[in-house]
Amino acid sequence: MLKRQRCLVVGGRRHRPREGRGAARCDADVTLVAPEVVPQLADYAREGSIEWQQRAYEEADLEGALM
Fold first, then answer.
1. Quick check: is 67 in a domain?
2. What is the CA radius of gyration of the chain?
3. How many domains, the chain?
4. d(CA 32, CA 18)
5. Which of 2, 24, 37, 39 is the most exposed place for a label (fewest CB within 10 A)?
6. Which of 61, 16, 66, 18 shows the shortest CA–CA distance to 36?
7. pTM, rounded to two decimals
8. What phi, psi does 28 have (nearest 5°)?
9. Where in the sequence is the domain holding 50, given as residue range(s)?
10. Are 50 and 27 in contact (CB under 8 A)?
11. pLDDT value of position 45
12. Which 3-state string (H, E, C) describes 1-67?
């Protein structure tokens, strides 16, 4: 169960919109780390469904996150 779990999505291209939105619908705390994302993911971030950290992935991003 993902409810209230911190979930990390790395990269904002290709199939990531389904991953990020699916976890958010499960009431997970979704953090997306990517310098650039597809427009759909940017929309999710603007509406507050996910948190987008617009930068490159760092190993420390894994701390406390489900993948």
1. no
2. 11
3. 1
4. 12
5. 39
6. 16
7. 0.75
8. -85, 160
9. 6-56
10. no
11. 92
12. CCCCCEEEEEEECCCHHHHHHHHHHCCCEEEEEEEEECHHHHHHHHHCCCEEECCCCCHHHHCCCEC
50 within 8 A of 25, measured Cβ to Cβ: no
What is the tens place of the pLDDT at every residue in 15-64?
A: 555 555 555 566 778 889 999 999 988 998 999 989 999 999 999 999 87
pLDDT at 9: 86
Asked whether 32 and 41 are in contact (CB, 8 A), the reply is yes
Exposure letters 3-13 (e unless 16+ CB within 10 A, then b): eeeebbbebbe
Using alpha carbons only, give the angle 28, 64, 15 rounded to the nearest 5 degrees.
50
Q: Residue 63: inside a domain, yes or no? A: no
